[in-house]
Amino acid sequence: MPATTGDPSLAGLPRQLGKYTLVRRLATGGMAELFLAIQRSLGGFEKLIVIKRILPAMNQDRGFIEMLLHEARVAATLSHPNLVHVFDVGMADRAYFIAMEHVHGEDLRAIVRQMKRLGATEFPIEHALSVALGVCAGLAYAHEKRDLDGAPLDIVHRDISPQNVVVTFSGDVKIVDFGIAKSTGKLGDDTASGRLKGKVPYMSPEHARGEAVDGRSDLFAAGVILFELSTGRRLFKAASEYETFKLICELDLPSPSRVRPGYPPALEAIVMRALSRDPRERWQSAREMQATRARAKPSVLCALCASAAHLSLA
Question: Which of 3, 103, 139, 150 could form a disulfide with 286 if both were Cys (CB 3.0 to 4.6 A apart)?
Fold first, then answer.
């Protein structure tokens, strides 16, 4: 059955989009849609990629187009095993698009939901730690990236969340979507549009308050993910965004050992430091946080392998 999209010109697939062949629609959001595509070249060269294409209704939204182009500019400078690569940005059929690496896997949210549908109640703790280490490695590279003149780019992802962490079927961890990343390059401020951008339950307190953020904000989000994967509990879950903001900014955080008795003290110290409300009290770099996790991993695994984390991450 032919795939349908927001654009009648793409009603039948496969179909050409510039030099790419769109094969199958993967997802559609309110502003863009994703396609599995093939890039072909000389000598029978073929490569599976993903095309992120702006929906026709958004073609006149200069703010969103600039955000897409900013994502391409930031991501194109990055080349690391824990980050999804961007290969190309262009315009075809009167729509802007980004061509990026095809990752054969699922994001963390989808993995947890599928496990629950299958009746699985445990997430192996060694996998949670591997995810955390991969996220830290990717963030360390992005945060430390410099331009061709050696000046720091000061990249901050600002949307580290389960939806934006993909685990491949071979076990690799990839951070995706730099659409709202902050850098020294041009990008409109969150407050300029009067709204915050990002997943609220994974925002740092300073991000939630609309204040300036740096790489330590991403580390807070990474700490939230590690807390949830290693305890099986959502950290900031409330009935409304307002109540979630209050949880993030005001209420005392539960320690992992309060949620899950027997939680290893070494891992708890790592998580709680990442979740410090004051950025000055967190890990000061992803490299530091990654190295600490790497040192703690053997003892943590010994302590936790007997009882993997129970999942309730709806």
Answer: 139
